[in-house]
Amino acid sequence: MSEAALRLLQLASPALPVGGFGYSEGLEVLVQTGRLADAAAVRGWLEAELLRGSLPVEAAALQPLREALRNWCSAAGQDGVAEAEAVAAVLRWDGWLLAQREAPELRAQLRQMGGSLLRLLADLGFPLPDRRDLAWPAAWAWAGLALGLEPLGVVEGYLFAWTAGQISAAVRLVPLGPTEGQRLQLELAPLLARRAAELLESDAATLRSGGVGASLAQLGHGELYSRLFRS
To answer: Residue 166 half-sphere exposure, CB side, CA atoms within 13 Å?
Structure first.
């Protein structure tokens, strides 16, 4: 296994200290309302999000974010105009992706996780050219660039990390046994690989999210009487 592959495994690991384990992204609402009661329902939900939710839009934007970040690094301290243009491109993508998420709780999650990842990378010796607050997709794109990961691996890792996090939440909420959770992860692997290849070649600006149910579930999470996950 290559060093780059090992770095991707580290980035996608649930042990990455960015706080992702604390969020269910609406899954808790769907379980409490009886929408997701078994493994088949959870699989259908995950497949729908991977095909038509906001996640594919974010995944497709990782490559243009990577290019804008590369331009920023190349111009930093050398060409003020080029640097300003590159920073503006990063911030446009960052703001546009946040605007795709209707629920303020999820926007706060993306900001929190993005900030945590950027601070971690800086502590590990991979800081941005200057301190910026970027949300999770842009921070992930920077991690891929800083760690020398291939573009396809960056997209695959993004989709895998989200799916693994949702399955982990489902194991605790539905509940599913750990074996059933691992079976779900295996069954979704072909879809993850196919979607990653498709999204790497897609124009994120032309994609739209059909995840209305996910947005409504996320909006309703803060109103739950009791909950395991953060709002």
So the answer is: 29
Per-residue pLDDT tens over the stretch 78-100? 888 999 999 999 999 999 999 98
Asked if the structure places residue 186 within a domain, the reply is yes
Total residue length of the chain:
231
Q: Is residue 226 part of a domain?
A: no
> Tell me: the pLDDT tens digits for 152-162?
999 999 999 99
The answer to whether residue 83 is domain-embedded is yes
Cβ count near 128 (within 10 Å) = 20
Tell which phi-psi region holds residue 19, choosing left (phi > 0), alpha (psi between -120 and 50) or beta.
left
pTM beyond 0.85, yes or no: yes
Residue 229, in any domain of the structure: no
**What distance in Å separates the CA atoms of residue 54 and residue 97, rounded to the nearest whole number?**
9
- 195 and 44 in contact (C-beta within 8 Å)? no
Rounded distance between C-alpha atoms, residue 196 and residue 214, angstroms:
21
Range of the domain at 35: 3-11+21-213
When divided into structural domains, the chain yields a total of 1
